[in-house]
Amino acid sequence: MYSKGCRCEPCRVAHRLYERQKNRERSREKMGLELRPVRFVDPAEARDHLLFLRSKGVGSRAVAEKTGFSHHFIQSVANGRAKRIGKKYADSILAVSINDILKGQYVPVGNANELIDDLLARGFSRRQIAKGIGTPKSADLRLKKFIRHERMEKLKVLHSQVMRSAR
After folding, report:
1. Residue 112 pLDDT exceeds 80
2. How much is the pLDDT for 41?
């Protein structure tokens, strides 16, 4: 890895290779042998994706942690202050999925209580439901505001399997 100003042999070799590659690409672009790569893009698509993630409960800090970019940069894209961003940055933001981030986080309960009530009405015990979604105690089934994302997903899968087998 080249460190600016360092004159040790490995850094000199790395810098020389980098410069050669850069010069080759530029000369190939000038001769028309290669198309110039798109370096900057309009951040609208990345902004829309960030706003979608925000609507699902994913904050900009979590996206920043996942992508490795600064929180300030993610916020400037989400708030529309960034007029153009690098293509690799846009691609990295678009690659972030909700499931990657929300694994251990809490999400709003939504219809989890209705799903639990439906399973109870179909003859499942609290212990069976708790075991199915990975909750240590069956007493934790009465949800107030939040549930772990992976437990919510397991509850949805359990409910859909019961509904499928009931047909």
Report:
1. yes
2. 92
CA 57 → CA 138, 160, 162, 165, distances in Å? Answer: 26, 24, 28, 32
CB 36 within 8 A of CB 42: no
Residues 154, 160: Cα–Cα separation, whole Å = 10
20-38 tens-digit pLDDT: 999 998 888 888 887 777 7
**Confidence check: pLDDT of 147 > 60:** yes
Q: For the chain, first and last CA: distance in Å? A: 61
- Cα gap 134→53, rounded to integer Å: 25
Domain count, the chain: 3
How buried is residue 133: exposed, middle or buried, by Cβ count under 10 Å (0-12/13-18/19+)? buried
Instruction: Please indicate, yes or no, whether residues 79 and 111 belong to a single structural domain of this protein.
Output: no
Task: Compute the distance between CA of residue 167 and CA of residue 162 in angstroms, rounded to an integer.
Answer: 9
Domain extent, residue 91, equals: 40-102
pTM of the model: 0.52
- The reported pLDDT for the residue numbered 136 is 73
Q: How many CB atoms lie within 10 A of CB 16?
A: 11
